[in-house]
Design brief:
heterodimer; A: 533 residues; alpha/beta; 11-stranded mixed beta sheet; B: mainly alpha; two-stranded antiparallel ribbon; 2 helices; 2 strands; 26% helix; flat
Chain lengths: 533, 88
């Protein structure tokens, strides 16, 4: 046991005080968040009171909850009553929600202690946390690089040891991709598994809340706490919540694991470089066939070519290393084709902006946050939205407005929804033959600030993660060694709807086999103690 | 589009966003290669239908707390500039 599980165990048994645990983490935040900028707000006073209440419960013999005394960071698009919730936008600067999100209530009820609100790409639109109105978050492994996004603050907070657990939201990969780039575990649950009540909406048919943790056991523990039906969210699934932690030790013997062929190809450039240096293409040494399974019958070779441009060879190598490890542990491994994933990115970048243009219409200067006065209400709306939204948010709102407009609806939004159905069908066909699917989480390791200024280059970060948002199926990222310059690489495990247990079983097996990953070296860390329990 | 989305833009910004949106829509054209005539659209990933709940009163969010976060409010209502007629 370590991390959050160990803290909760120690606090519950009286071996450690919640107030002492909190102080260790707050000291670390104070020492290093100036460099990392994971937090928009640190709620130290409120956290001290909450930790003291946990200690009092332990003293009085009351059950302090499964996550007793575990500090948790919440992405700043999760509503926290009376605590600023900004979405890293000028539009909501200073806004204090009148209620808590259901996940915030659930974590608090389980004894977790909110330590602060974390930075994100404005309104969760981005893959690097560079698009925050309050400045970027830096990757704890290399402060000159991005932590990924949009939940970059939550991922960096856990990776830097500012909190053992964090929650984020995942619309196109915003939990999994930053988890991969920061060397930690991140889960996007099945759409509807976790209530979205109190999550500030971006693209409602994709948005899903999930946990970040340093290991699979902690992530499973947190997932169990936040999962379940909520009458306040009409898309919430009324299904019982299993004990996710019991799935961790089941082993992968007999499980069928499919490597998604379309997402397992290193760039030609990368392959050539490998050959020159005496290495070999990672796939060349494996004995697995091509699966021969092309469910929807589309030839992906031409269309997918642009999609493969960005795949680092090391990332694909780690994927095959993970597949090897699962085969060695008794799983059956083969390739499987999921052709529609080649079109996922394009479909997503029509549907998500369309939904966003509708969801963000509410920021009109009337009910919350910013208002810029105008002569009439329309001018007030226009000036408020000009001043309140950043560049990427404006672009996506206008893109979505276009995709939904009369005359273009069928050609863009309608077509994208049909591609979404293709994705659903292709995944269904793949899951008829496989229990879980594997791919890289991110096509690349953490990149430098400003390196992906072109929008399409940035959007390609989400190539491997978007398909599971289109289908609504669960997926997670597990660290599996390092790539270029010793930076963390994550492997993505995908499962059919409500297949979180099998997904966690496979993730736990990968974690046991994973090459060791060093902790981020922040200045002065050698002198700090307590946080890295 | 900016007018429909109620976002005030300068001429330079219009040029900037035209380029940005053009790049994305260029990629969207690859969907034209697909024969999707027989594929129905999918709007929602999980087939939930007829979601009902018991008709019981809950505890509503406090009105004053909501209004305290608005840019302008009076008499228990949100306040906005004139919607109709000459502003005076």
């Amino acid at each position: 046991m370590k991390g959050a599980s160990l803290i909760a165990h120690d606090v519950r048994t009286g071996a450690r005080r919640a107030t002492d645990v909190l102080q260790d983490f707050l000291s670390r935040v104070e020492a290093h968040d100036g460099d990392v900028h994971a937090f928009n707000t640190v709620t130290a006073e409120q956290a001290r009171a909450a930790a003291a209440a946990i200690d009092a419960a332990v003293d009085e013999g009351r059950d302090p909850g499964l996550l007793a005394g575990v500090p948790v960071a919440f992405k700043d698009n999760l509503c926290t009553r009376g605590v600023a919730t900004t979405c890293s936008s000028r539009m909501l600067e200073g806004w204090q929600p009148p209620y808590d999100a259901t996940v915030v209530q659930a974590m608090t009820a389980a004894g977790a202690v909110m330590i602060g609100k974390t930075n994100l790409d404005e309104f969760a639109m981005g893959s690097s946390t560079e698009h925050s109105a309050f400045g970027p978050t830096r990757n704890p492994y290399d402060l000159t690089r991005v932590p990924g996004g949009s939940s970059g603050g939550s991922a960096a907070a856990v990776a830097a040891g500012f909190a053992p657990l964090a929650l984020g939201s995942d619309t196109g990969g915003s939990i999994r991709q930053p988890a991969s780039l920061c060397g930690i575990v991140g889960i996007k649950p099945t759409y509807g598994r976790v209530s979205r009540y109190g999550l500030v909406a971006f693209a409602s048919s994709f948005d899903q809340i999930g946990p970040f943790a340093t290991d699979v056991a902690d992530a499973a523990l947190a997932l169990g706490v936040i999962s379940g039906h909520d009458p306040a969210d009409s898309t919430s699934i009324p299904a019982a919540v299993p004990d996710y932690t019991s799935a961790l030790d089941r082993g992968v013997e007999g499980l069928r694991v499919g490597i998604v062929s379309e997402l397992a190809v290193a760039s030609a450039e990368g392959q050539a470089a490998r050959a020159r240096s005496g290495g070999c293409h990672p796939a060349a040494g494996t004995s697995w066939g091509d699966g021969g399974n092309t469910p929807s019958g589309y030839d992906i070779s031409a269309e997918a070519a642009w999609l493969r441009d960005g795949f680092d060879p090391e990332v694909v190598e780690r994927l095959y290393g993970a597949a090897d490890a699962l085969a060695a542990a008794g799983a059956t491994v083969d390739h499987v084709s999921v052709p529609a994933v080649a079109y996922g990115l394009t479909a997503y970048y029509l549907i998500a902006p369309a939904e966003a243009s509708s969801n963000l219409a509410r920021y009109d200067g009337t009910r919350y946050g910013l208002r810029v006065e105008g002569a009439d209400v329309t001018e007030m709306n226009r000036l408020t939205r000009r001043a309140g939204f950043g560049d990427e948010v404006k672009a996506r709102i206008m893109l979505g407005t276009f995709a939904l407009s009369a005359g273009y609806y069928d050609a863009y939004y309608g077509k994208a929804q049909r591609v979404r159905m293709l994705t659903r069908r292709d995944f269904d066909a793949a899951y008829a033959d496989f229990d879980v699917l594997l791919s890289p989480t991110s096509p690349c390791v953490a990149f430098r600030f400003g390196e992906r200024a072109d929008p399409m280059t940035m959007y390609r970060c989400d190539t491997c993660t978007i398909p599971s948002n289109l289908s609504g199926d669960p997926a997670m990222s597990v660290p599996f060694g390092t790539g270029a310059e010793g930076l963390p690489v994550g492997v993505q495990v995908m499962a059919p709807a409500l297949g979180e247990e099998t997904m966690l079983t496979v993730a736990a097996a990968l974690e046991r086999a994973a090459p060791p990953l060093s902790k981020p070296l922040l200045a002065g860390v050698a002198g700090s103690t307590g946080a890295q329990t | 589009m900016a007018r429909l989305a109620r976002i005030e833009l300068t001429a330079d910004e219009i040029e900037h966003y035209t380029g940005h949106l053009g790049r994305v829509l260029e990629h969207a054209r690859e969907l034209d290669d697909l024969d999707l005539a027989d594929v129905p659209p999918l709007a929602h990933p999980y087939p939930l239908r007829n979601v009902f709940r018991d008709d019981v009163a809950g505890s509503p969010v406090d009105r004053d707390e909501v209004l305290s976060q608005a840019p302008a409010a009076s008499d228990g209502q949100f306040e906005v500039p004139p919607v109709l007629g000459d502003p005076s």
